[in-house]
Design brief:
Elements (H helix, E strand, L loop, with lengths): L1 E8 L8 H15 L3 E8 L10 E6 L9 H14 L3 H5 L5 H8 L7 E5 L2 H5 L3 H4 L2 E5 L3 H11 L3 H24 L2 E4 L2 H6 L28 E6 L5 H14 L9 E4 L13 E5 L4 H6 L1 E6 L9 H8 L4 E3 L14 E3 L3 H16 L9 H27 L1 H4 L11 H8 L2
Helix pairs in contact: 1-14, 7-8, 10-13
């Protein structure tokens, strides 16, 4: 089977964001099942040239971190002009004919894997021109709605409200047209209106890094790592800095790794912001305890998966455990700031006293990998049926489109 793997960005040799790490795991699972993939997307400025199995649509800087105010304003202007979400407008520079011409360079293909909403929202024909598999990394319209609630500025609230409405419409259309939908948590199945739909197959994820022996080197007491330029992640970090840190001892060192969109939040003197670190695994291992301070968003938290695969002690909010069925014994769950701080204090004190808190995360990693493999296999089985009977699975588009009753019920609730 030959599939086009269509994403906003071509694969990175050293993936750093949760989106890229998730794509790497999913790609490995497809290859494990013998699927031939050709990748389609844009490349970051200055990144490596496209390979023989890649179709580069051009060089494009699409990430908020590092973008100037003028550049961001241009993205918003393009989004309004094209009546698209901002993320889709960033990649919508090709005409339909131009994109189809580039896709044809791959030769005969059985269908498309559409990784995240940006490309099919910008080019809606992608979900229906051939049988397609949609990988919903998040329920984007819910995240946008959360952002609208959490932001302080009136105009920013309006912008996120517009995003939520457009993304909800785009996600509903893509889910209707796709032969298979993969979410990264059970909650996201409901969020996309696919509760009870057999076309939706949730996927587990694995970071898949080889285990590194603990050398006992500790650079800080508490570590947090993430892509803080993504608004739902930033909400959790701001909550931790504003409400949890003041409840921690002033001699407890806290290190925050990851990129920001703009300056980091104001914080106490015992908090250090490191920016993007070259070796995320080393940063994690140098922490006594990890804080998984998720307070919003959808999808699965890759930093949670990485923490558990590394066997690290951690304190996690309930939201950080999306997509995780089994919580390791060295992880504490807390939602209120006082409880979260108390659990950190307990774990750090035990670690400082020489108690061994780290576990072997290999079993967790194997279970995640096996579950991912099974989910991809189930999706491919359904997709094979779509290739043979496409009209039964891929809904036509337009006012006379026939939507399966279970999906119609989900869409009607929107």
């Amino acid at each position: 089977m030959h599939l086009l793997f269509v994403s906003s960005l071509l694969p990175d040799d050293a993936p750093s964001t949760g989106f890229e790490i998730a794509n790497r795991a999913i790609v490995a699972a497809y290859r494990h099942h013998g699927v031939r993939l050709t990748f389609v997307g844009f490349r970051r400025p200055g990144s490596r040239p496209a390979r023989a199995d890649e179709i580069c649509l051009g060089e494009l800087a699409i990430e908020n971190s590092g973008a100037s105010t003028l550049r961001k304003a241009a993205w918003v202007g393009a989004a309004f002009a094209r009546k698209l979400p901002v993320g889709a407008a960033k990649v919508a520079g090709l005409s339909r004919a131009e994109l189809l011409g580039r896709l044809a360079e791959a030769g005969p293909v059985d269908g498309y894997v559409l990784s995240s909403v940006q490309m099919p929202a910008a080019y809606p024909f992608l979900a229906r021109q051939k049988p397609s598999i949609f990988i919903a990394h998040n329920v984007e319209h819910r995240s946008a709605r959360e952002n609208a609630r959490n932001t302080g500025g009136f105009h920013t609230r309006l912008l996120f409200g517009r995003e939520a409405a457009l993304l909800e419409r785009a996600e509903a259309t893509i889910c209707r047209d796709a032969a298979v939908v993969h979410t990264l948590s059970e909650d996201d199945r409901d969020g996309l209106g696919l509760a009870g739909s057999d076309k939706c197959v949730p996927l587990a994820l694995t970071v898949g890094r080889p285990n590194v022996a603990d050398k006992g080197e500790r650079a800080h007491d508490v570590g947090l790592i993430g892509t803080w330029s993504w608004a739902p992640n930033r909400v959790g970090l701001d909550w931790f800095v504003d409400e949890v840190v003041p409840l921690l001892p002033s001699d407890m060192s806290i290190a925050v790794a990851g990129r920001f969109d703009g300056p980091p939040p104001a914080a106490a003197a015992n908090v250090t912001f490191l920016g993007r670190v070259e070796d995320a695994q080393r940063f994690v291992g140098a922490s006594r305890v990890l804080a998984l301070a998720t307070k919003g968003g959808t999808g699965v938290q890759l930093k949670t998966i990485e923490t558990f695969e590394e066997g690290m002690p951690a304190v996690a909010t309930p939201q950080a455990l999306r997509g995780v069925d089994s919580v390791p014994a060295n992880v504490r769950v807390a939602d209120a700031p006082r409880d979260f701080a108390d659990r950190i204090i307990e774990l750090v004190a035990a670690e400082r006293a020489g108690q061994s808190l780290r576990l072997d995360g290999a079993a967790f990693a194997r279970a995640q990998g096996a579950a991912l493999d099974a989910g991809i296999a189930a999706g491919l089985d359904r997709f094979a049926t779509a290739i043979n009977t496409p009209q039964a699975l891929v809904a036509p588009v337009g006012p006379d489109a026939i939507v399966p009753p279970r999906l119609a019920n989900g869409l009607a609730r929107r």
